[in-house]
Write a structure and sequence with these properties.
Blueprint lengths: L5 H9 L17 E3 L11 H16 L12 H13 L6 E3 L3 H15 L5 E5 L4 H13 L5 E5 L9 H8 L3 E7 L11 H10 L3 E5 L18 E4 L14 E4 L43 H17 L1 H23 L5 E2 L11 E5 L3 H9 L7 E3 L1 E3 L3 E5 L7 H16 L15
Parallel strand pairs: 1-11, 3-4, 3-5, 5-6, 6-7
Antiparallel strand pairs: 2-8, 7-8, 9-10, 10-13, 12-13
Helix pairs in contact: 1-11, 2-8, 3-8, 4-5, 6-7, 9-11
Length: about 425
């Protein structure tokens, strides 16, 4: 069968063993194709009822009593569900704070432990917020450290040789996104972690675009530290509570810079002298946002039920299919591939580059253009990111999205839209 035909996509969907998971997500618009799960995951069908129970029963009926009936240990409950998805022990993970706050806590702790080493290394493809946090730490430590950014030659990825050059032997910390937010370039976690350790550096991974989209094994890779959000492929909801990981043998050696009562050894003793809790709990700070924290649980159940290896297999099949369609239909229209060609170097989103990327995205989203409303996202300067979430995205959606992209550019429908950008792109 012709792989560039609609019938091929329909056949792939008919044989998809994970197809039933699509029905476990809320879809309010029949005419919508959602390809932005790499930025905000869809709402699981089980989440509204669960959150309603938390609000009406646990909060409304239980009131303060609910702290002794599940609330106090909810961060640990969520961590137990997340741990197998990232290849960690449950006592090495905690759900707390935001991604940036967790990065600050762990990077600070690493620099304190690595006192005397003055190098911090990241790359110029990293998410800007991560770079800002590292820049702030350089200033906080009295400008005694130097932040070096590994360079890219193609705007897609960074080579091991370039990382090796930037690491040198003065490096305290290497901090990278495992899957790059623009291009979906994916580092070899084991090789990069080993390289960092060869230079005496600690390794801190940002898993925001990796957790829930690619199989991870932090323990097998001997990773030191990791952080990540839960609102992308983990489907925890907008601004959902983030997570952090600290390898067990490092937990007692590291000091969190934020001393809050939930990270205290015995918080309800109300002792005025701080003593950190044992293990991973020492990286907690203030009272957790229970509603946000609770919203994560139903989605983690779905991911564990589906299995990360199964999800990765479908993701690779879908992203490879998308790239085949790109070559056939879109490359002749002036699009370029902004993601790695090789599947082992790619996460679960695909970036397509075009000089009119922003206005093309506006045309995709508009109900006045084409047969479907298609939601991707735009990233400067010319990236259209198509985030494929194998839990709920179908092959026919991939096919129809490519057809609409072709139609928009062939007919210059993007010219119907202004170049001025909205606040959120």
């Amino acid at each position: 069968m012709d792989i560039f035909s609609k019938a091929f996509a329909q056949e792939q969907d008919a044989s998809d063993k994970l197809a039933h998971f699509r029905g476990k997500f809320i879809q309010k618009e029949e005419n919508l194709i959602y390809l932005d799960g790499n930025s905000l995951g869809m709402l699981p069908s089980a989440s509204p009822a669960f959150i309603n129970e938390v609000v009406e029963e646990e909060w409304g009926r239980g009131l303060i009593r609910s702290w002794n009936h599940g609330w106090y240990t909810r961060a640990q409950e969520a961590a137990r569900k997340l741990a197998p998805l990232i290849g960690a022990q449950e006592d090495e993970v905690i759900i707390t704070d935001s991604t940036s706050v967790n990065l600050f806590k762990l990077a600070y702790a690493a620099l304190k432990l690595q006192e005397g080493r003055r190098g911090i290394v990241s790359d110029e493809l990293n998410f800007p917020s991560d770079i800002y946090v590292l820049q702030g730490l350089v200033k906080m430590f009295g400008n005694q450290h130097t932040l070096r950014l590994a360079k890219t030659t193609d705007g897609i990825g960074v080579s091991l040789d370039e990382l090796d050059y930037q690491l040198r032997n003065d490096t305290a910390l290497l901090s990278l996104s495992h899957v790059v937010f623009k291009s979906a370039f994916m580092y070899d976690m084991k090789k990069v972690t080993q390289l960092a350790h060869e230079h005496g550096a600690m390794m801190l991974w940002d898993l925001s675009h990796a957790a829930g989209s690619v199989p991870l094994d932090l323990n097998a890779c001997n990773a030191d530290l990791a952080i990540g959000c839960t609102y992308k492929y983990l489907n925890g909801g907008p601004g959902a509570t983030a997570f952090l990981y600290v390898r067990k043998d490092l937990q007692e050696k590291l000091e969190s810079p934020i001393w809050g009562w939930f990270g205290q050894h015995q918080p309800f003793d109300f002792n005025l002298n701080y003593k950190p809790a044992e293990g991973i709990a020492r990286f907690l700070a203030g009272t957790p946002p229970l509603l946000s924290l609770s919203a994560i649980l139903p989605a983690l159940d779905l991911l564990n039920e589906a299995g990360m290896d199964n999800l990765r297999q479908k993701s690779l099949t879908q992203t490879n299919y998308l790239i085949d369609l790109f070559r056939h239909y879109l490359q002749p229209q002036g699009f370029e591939l902004g993601s790695p060609e090789q599947e082992h170097e790619r996460g679960s989103h695909v970036s397509l580059r075009h000089p009119e990327a922003y206005r093309i995205c506006k045309a995709l989203i508009s109900p006045e253009v084409g047969e479907k409303v298609i939601i991707p996202d735009f990233r400067e300067p010319d990236n259209i990111r198509l985030g494929i979430a194998p839990l709920y995205n179908t092959f026919i959606e991939v096919f129809e999205a490519v057809q609409q992209l072709k139609y928009i550019v062939e007919n210059k429908r993007y010219e119907d839209f202004r170049r001025e950008k909205e606040n959120v792109t």
